[in-house]
Design goal:
The chain is 73% helix and 0% strand. By secondary structure, it is mostly helical. The chain folds into 2 domains: 95 residues, no CATH class; 184 residues, no CATH class. Helix 2 packs parallel to helix 16 and helix 4 runs antiparallel to helix 10. The longest helix is centred in the middle third of the chain and has 27 residues.
């Protein structure tokens, strides 16, 4: 904490560091709240972090910190993450523009048109990867495009666990490497590194894994080459998309190509009548980022208190001396 952050006539030396036992109690309290709240009582994560924030604030008060001191600690933690907060807001607007312009619809429309029983698994893996990169969400891809592919895979006769493996693998791969993924941006900022450098570092583990999975799925997919493809279902989805958007491939993919081009250059970063497709195309905007944004702000405030009050420092000092 800097001198400017301290109340008048106070210096950092006026605030005692917590004892090792006090630091352990404080941090274990946070750990137990998160563990019990999520896995036993199934409480909202935002509520859990709020309770943890109150707990750590009380522990800082025991050390003699006034409310103004604790507020300054929270502010200090949040201020460092302001660039990420701005990025979250901008990402929400970018995703919304992709949805409304038909970019995501084009990926789905032309992607499922390329499916055939022999290459269903490998093509589905690539399609899920592209969708996840374009939308910045693995959960959204699994819950929308994944539902469509599950239905097609079941009709073809491919075991559903294999189809689920294909969907989750592609969605996770795309989300990790997406420049508009909220978790990827937050991880880069938390590590105090450049977004492009963070994505580049992940390539060493994600790309080899993706290739291995692609080869395995390609071999497995050849076993179902003679199965019938549910063309009627595919045509229904495509007709719904075409009815809601003017799908010109090169025009609608222009925003996505622009995003990839700017990422490579290292620049800073409607109703169809089909429920699963509506869920995908309805995502985006500032509201879609609210869950992650609010959780990040509360967590940063929590970290600010734990850092500046000395709880983390004392714990690490004793661990290093062991």
């Amino acid at each position: 904490m800097t001198a400017k952050e301290m109340p008048e006539n106070k210096t950092p030396l006026d605030y005692p560091l917590p004892s090792f036992l006090h630091a352990v109690i404080c941090i274990m309290g946070v750990f137990l709240m998160i563990s019990l709240g999520m896995f036993v009582y199934e409480i909202s994560l935002h509520a859990i972090i709020f309770l943890a924030l109150m707990w750590v604030g009380v522990q800082a008060g025991i050390l003699g910190y006034a409310f103004a001191d604790i507020r300054n600690m929270m502010n200090s933690g949040i201020i460092k993450a302001l660039p990420a907060i701005y990025i979250f807001l901008l990402i929400g607007m970018v995703i919304a523009s992709f949805m409304q312009s038909g970019t995501i619809s084009s990926l789905l429309y032309y992607g499922i048109d390329l499916l055939s029983p022999a290459i269903f698994l490998s093509a589905g893996l690539v399609l899920c990867s592209f969708m996840s990169v374009a939308t910045g969400t693995s959960w959204g891809t699994v819950g929308t495009v994944g539902v469509v592919l599950i239905g097609i895979g079941d009709t073809i006769g491919i075991p559903l666990p294999i189809v689920a493996c294909m969907i989750i693998s592609g969605a996770t791969f795309g989300d990790k490497l997406s420049p508009i993924s909220d978790t990827t941006n937050l991880a880069a900022l938390s590590a105090d590194t450049n977004l492009c450098r963070h994505i580049y570092a992940m390539l060493y583990t994600t790309v080899p894994t993706f290739i291995i999975v692609l080869v395995i799925l390609s071999v497995l997919g050849m076993q179902y080459a003679d199965n019938a493809l549910p063309t009627a279902d595919i045509h229904n989805i495509q007709a719904a998309l075409m009815g809601a958007y003017e799908l010109n491939l090169w025009v609608t993919l222009l925003p996505l190509l622009l995003m990839f081009g700017m990422s490579m250059k290292r620049y800073s970063p409607g109703n169809t009548g089909i429920e699963s497709i509506d869920a995908l195309l309805g995502r985006g905007g500032l509201y879609s980022m609210a869950w992650t944004l609010l959780l990040s702000i509360m967590t940063l405030a929590l970290g600010g208190i734990m850092h500046h009050a000395g709880f983390l420092r004392v714990l690490l000092m004793h661990i290093l001396l062991i």
